[in-house]
Input
Amino acid sequence: MTDVTNAQGSVSIPVPAGADDETAAAVTGLYTDGVIGLKSAFSREWAARLGEDIDIAFKEALSRPNGAVGRGPKRYYVEIHPEQLRGWLELVDHPWARKVSEAVLGPDYQIVELGFDVPGPGAMNQPWHRDFPMPEETRLNKRLTSLAFNATAVDTEEDMGPFEIAPGTQWDLPDGFEHEMFPPKSAYDRYEALAVRKYPKQGDISARSALTIHRGTKNQSQKSRPVLVLGMDAPGAGNAEHHDMAVTKDFYEQLPQRVRDHLVCPVVDELTPITQKHSIEGLMMGEA
Ligand SMILES: O=C(O)CCC(=O)C(=O)O
Ligand SMILES: [Fe+2]
Output
C-alpha cells in the first residue's frame, strides 16, 4: 500500500493485491483526488437516450407533489427506478463501473441509489458541500464506503454551470460544517483555490466519493445540464435506507446474476413513483 499525505495527515491507498493498472489508477485517484473519469465509456447515442429518459422522468416527477426535490433555484433532484432508464443495465454492468466499485467497496458492493440532477437555466452556485456526513469508517480508518457515479446527458459547455470539485477534500474533517455537510464560508477561499471544473461530454462517465467537496455552478445559458447519479455502497455503509429504489419481478428476472448479486432493493409487482423526502440539502441550497 502506498501512502498519500494531505492536509488531514496520511492516508494509505488500499490497492487490492493483484490489481491491474487501470484498477490501481482508479483506487489511487479516488483516494487522492477523490474523483476519476472514463472518457467515451458509452456512445453519444447512449447518452442521448439517457437524456430522453431523464426528460420523461423529470416531467412525470414535476407533475406530482414532491416528485422532485429543489436543490436551489432552478435546480432539481429526482430519484427514479432502474426500469425508467433504457441504459441502466449497460451502466451498472460496464466493466469500469464494476471494477472500480469492487476495488473500492469490495466484492459485495451494493447498488443503492439512482437519480438525476437537473440544473436548469438560471440555476445559481450551490454552496460547497458533500452529499452526506462523513461516516465513522472514513473518519477513523480513512476508508471510503461509498461511491457516486455520474453520467452526463449533454456535452458540458462553459456557460452551462459546470460541476466543480475540490480534489483531496474527501478527507476534510467537518470542522464548523453545517449539518456536517456544508463547510463554513470562511473555508471557501481554500475550496475555490483547489477547485477543478469538469466538462464531461456525452458518453463520458465519472466516479467520485460524494464526500469530496463540490458544487454545481451558475448556469448562465438557456440549456439545462441533466446528469445521472448512480450510488454504490460497501456492505453496511447504510445509504440504501435513505432511498426508495425498487425493481419489478419481470425486470429482475431478466438481469444477469452478476448484476442481481449487487441489488439490495425490493423486488415488487408494481413500481410506486418515488416521493422525495425533505432533505437537508434542499433546505441548505434553497428550495426551488
Ligand atoms: O450540478 C451538479 O452536477 C451536481 C449537483 C449536486 O452536487 C447536488 O445537487 O448535490
Ligand atoms: Fe452534491
